[in-house]
């Protein structure tokens, strides 16, 4: 599987870019999976639902399955967060895995950048950021794309991974 990341600070446009890239790349006939890093606790089920009750009762893993989707939830219960490589190993084979976040991992990335956030560019100190998708012109030593030019960003990523 080919792996490419979208990174950036909070409110830089990462999730919107990821969504547009998945749509663009899958429309070209490629299969895509995603991994998203969250810095906070989250739930994919809700209090009172059976799967939630199973987890609350102490289950380590719960698989929720229907004819439309399967969700697997693992409670870490104090064990360390699994590294990205371990999560990638759990995925079924696809053409491309897009990874949102994981800015310190060693896969190539595009940085989403919005000037209005006031955050510095990560790219200036990280050679693994191969391009920047920004809402403002930037003078950098790597490609800079308009944050909304999804087609050009997808072309770049697909070229980078050899698809």
Key attributes of the depicted protein:
163 residues, alpha/beta, Rossmann fold, 6-stranded parallel sheet, two-stranded antiparallel ribbon, 4 helices, 8 strands, 25% strand
CATH fold title: Rossmann fold
The total strand number stands at 8
Question: Biggest sheet: strands, sense, closure?
Answer: 6 strands, parallel
Under CATH, the homologous superfamily reads P-loop containing nucleotide triphosphate hydrolases
Helix content bin: 10-25%
Residue stretches low in confidence (pLDDT < 50, at least 5 long) are: none
Tell me the count of domains.
1
The average pLDDT value, as a whole number, equals 94
Compressed to H and E, one letter per element, the order equals EHEHEEHEEEEH
Distinct helical segment count: 4
Shape: globular
Explain this structure.
- The structure is a single chain.
- With 163 residues, the chain is α/β, with parallel strands linked by helices.
- The protein has a single domain, classed as Rossmann fold, CATH 3.40.50.
- Helices cover 25% and strands 25% of the residues.
- It has four helices and eight strands, in the order βαβαββαββββα.
- The protein has helices spanning 14-27, 50-57, 84-89, 150-161; strands spanning 2-7, 32-36, 61-65, 70-74, 96-100, 109-113, 129-134, 144-146.
- A hairpin with a 4-residue loop joins β3 (61-65) and β4.
- The longest helix has 14 residues, at 14-27.
